[in-house]
Backbone:
């Protein structure tokens, strides 16, 4: 039996077609994801009450509550769970309706499994860690924000307490630009001090600190951390 990676992204697949549901579950599990399945929106809600997910792969047309209705309900409740919609409705109007409901992407059936995988990977790269996640990955580095540990490959990288605080803030707000004021630990900590701390962090996480890929400067605004 294959070992399950407890840190792998957890995907909830929701489709009333059992054959498609089983195929998607098998395919995504084979690509290294943790996968849970549900046959309708009601089952999906039960799964979400008991588990934390990183992505919802959702069929649009289902008996009872449709995929569109489920997404609208999640967004109305301020649930930011990423959603990839699957639908046999392929017209541009249907796609616009799906995206307008709050989904992150829309893929028409039939589709190539490789395209589904690429779209899932693209959505996950854009997301900060969800509640229940403990680690964030960027390049060769992994940061566990509960323990405040940074690893580069298998090597534990020493962080100062200030660097640890900055990393927790960047990971918590990954993909968002943070001003120097937001990063300052106290009103007396000036912009120059923040810049020095950022440069030190870059030497620990970037392959080439002079040309950062992950911890980047947003000219005139501050800094941003990009996750994989």
Residues:
């Amino acid at each position: 039996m294959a070992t399950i990676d407890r840190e792998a992204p957890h995907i909830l697949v929701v489709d009333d077609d059992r054959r498609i549901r089983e195929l998607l579950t098998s395919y995504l599990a084979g690509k290294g994801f943790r996968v849970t399945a549900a046959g309708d929106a009601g089952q999906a809600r039960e799964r979400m009450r008991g588990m934390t997910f990183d992505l919802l792969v959702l069929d649009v047309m289902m008996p009872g509550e449709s995929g569109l209705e489920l997404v609208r309900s999640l967004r109305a409740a301020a649930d930011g769970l990423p959603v990839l919609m699957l639908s046999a409705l392929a017209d541009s109007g249907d796609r616009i309706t799906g995206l307008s409901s709050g989904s992150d992407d829309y893929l028409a059936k039939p589709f190539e499994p490789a395209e589904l995988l690429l779209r899932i990977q693209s959505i996950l790269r854009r997301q900060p860690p969800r509640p229940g996640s403990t680690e964030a990955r960027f390049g060769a580095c992994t940061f566990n924000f509960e323990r405040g540990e940074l690893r580069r490959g298998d090597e534990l990288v020493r962080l100062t307490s200030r660097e640890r605080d900055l990393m927790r803030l960047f990971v918590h707000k990954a993909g968002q630009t943070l001003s120097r004021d937001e990063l300052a630990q106290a009103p007396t900590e000036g912009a120059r001090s923040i810049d020095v701390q950022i440069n030190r962090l870059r030497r620990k996480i970037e392959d080439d600190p002079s040309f950062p890929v992950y911890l980047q400067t947003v000219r005139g605004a501050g800094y941003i951390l990009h996750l994989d």
Remarks:
- The chain has a mean pLDDT of 84.
- The longest strand covers residues 10-14.
- The helical segments are 18-30, 41-50, 67-76, 92-100, 113-125, 161-172, 180-183, 191-205.
